[in-house]
Structures are given as C-alpha cells and as structure tokens.
Write a structure and sequence with these properties.
Layout (H helix, E strand, L loop, with lengths): L1 E15 L3 E8 L3 E7 L18 E8 L5 E3 L2 E6 L8 H17 L7 H16 L3 H16 L20 E2 L6 E2 L1 H6 L12 H11 L12 H19 L6 H4 L6
The structure holds zinc ion.
Zinc ion binds next to helix 4.
Length: 253
C-alpha cells in the first residue's frame, strides 16, 4: 500500500449504494482507473459536480496493487464544465470525446499527453462557438497520439496526393482518391468526403485551434468525416461508441 497522487478526468460515474459514487477516471499518471467516492452524495461540503463526466480532479489516495477499485481520498477540483450544461450540442460532443478516450485506453499505462489533450479540449469546449470542430480536432490528435492516424493526404491505392473529393475505408481509415474509387468499386465504404475536410485536418495539426478560420469549413462535411472516424475506431478497437448515435443521429437512421 502506498500513497499516490494523480490528476484525472471523470469519464463516467454512477451511484453506488446509498451515498457512494463509482467513477471511471482517466489519469495522466496511470491511465484509466476506477475510484469509489465514499459518502459523496450525502456530503454538503464536497460538491457533487466533482464526479460529473468531464470534471478534472487532483486526487490523493492509498493505492492497493490488487484491488480493482480505489477509494478516493482527498481531492481538489482542477476544472469543471458546468458551463456546457445548458447546451445540448456541447454536452453530446463532450460525451463523445470522453467515450472515445474511454474506449481507446487501458489501465496502468501513463498517458500524460492524452490527459493534456482531453483537458485542453474540454477547456476550449466551454467557450467555443464551434463544438463539433473542437471534437474533430481532438479526435484527430487522439488518433495521432495513439499512432493509428494514417497518411490521409495520399490515396492508399495509387499514392497520389488527394486533390478532389475522396472516400475512406472504414476498416483501416485509408483514403481512396476519386479515380481509384471509380476504377475499383469496393464495398464497406463511407460516402464521398469533400477535399476541404483535409484542409481542416491540416489546420488541426498546424495551427492553434483559435487561429483556425472555422467559418470556412462546412459543419455537415466535418460531421460526416467524424462519423467515418468513429466507425473506424469501433472497427479497430472492436467496440461500440454509444454516444455516437446521439451526435450522429442523422446518419444512423
Ligand atoms: Zn488513387
């Protein structure tokens, strides 16, 4: 048993017993961990918002190597996202980002870069007027950090740089240029994606989010692209992104 300290973001939480709350927390130091907050729901002093999904905490606790659930000791609030509460669009985007981290991460491994990425995406979400854009930017950086974002600027068949609308293979997230697509009609693909979307991908990696000219990117194009990414992630990690049905309700009818 040792005393540990970490910073983490609540991915999901649920009531347990009369007064406890169990939370899955993504920590920079130890990856994903499950904590139980004893008596939290009866406490006056400790705000319940501390365990709402998206909240960032600093935690101090006793760690037992072989116990699957850790009892949270002292904690301090680093950031809450109460500002997004009244904005359904933002809430759906937040839940999607949290689930993407949840479904692509494991326990035990340090993941400071993904923690920092999620923390700053949530900070930006509070004030931005482009919630979908921050979600897509975040998701691209997440895939890049995980090492599974292929070179999408080139056609995976012929190798030429993509210069017009393209398609994506959901199985491996490889791009297919317009002419290869016409010559080789394969199944299991998404609809065609306009070239401009690659401009947003480039901006996401080359510019600060606040410096991107978001108004020039069509929201439904970006949504369509993000939907393709979520299908790829589901395929790659053999999982189901549940929050996707809400964010992409127009696509799953
Ligand atoms: Zn090609």
């Amino acid at each position: 048993m040792e005393i540990q300290k970490c910073k983490g973001i609540i991915l999901q939480s649920r009531a347990s017993g009369e007064a406890d709350t169990i939370a899955t927390i993504f920590t920079g130091e130890y990856g994903k961990r499950t904590f139980i907050f004893k008596g939290l729901r009866k406490s006056q002093r400790r705000s319940r918002s501390a365990v709402e999904p998206g909240t960032a905490l600093q935690l101090v606790y006793y760690h037992h190597e072989n116990k699957p659930v850790t009892v949270a000791g002292e904690f301090t609030l680093l950031q809450d996202i109460l500002q997004v509460r009244d904005n359904l669009g933002k809430i759906l985007n937040v839940y999607f980002m949290l689930e993407m981290v949840d479904k692509t991460s494991a326990s035990g491994d340090p993941a400071q870069d993904i923690y920092n990425l999620l923390y700053s995406a949530l900070t930006t979400m509070k004030t931005t007027t482009y919630p979908l854009h921050i979600t897509l930017c975040f998701t691209l950086h997440l895939l890049h950090t995980l090492g599974i974002l292929p070179d999408i600027y080139r056609c995976s068949f012929c190798g030429t740089v993509i210069t017009s609308s393209f398609r994506i293979h959901i199985d491996d997230f490889n791009t297919i240029c317009h002419s290869c697509d016409r010559a080789n009609p394969a199944s299991n693909r998404s609809n065609s994606i306009p070239l401009e979307v690659l401009g947003f991908v480039n901006d996401s990696f080359c510019k600060k989010f606040s410096d991107i000219s978001h108004e020039k990117y069509n929201e439904s194009d970006l949504l369509h692209f993000l939907f393709s990414i979520s299908l790829f992630v589901e395929h790659y990690f053999h999982t189901k992104i549940k929050s996707k049905s809400l964010l992409f309700s127009d696509y799953e009818k």
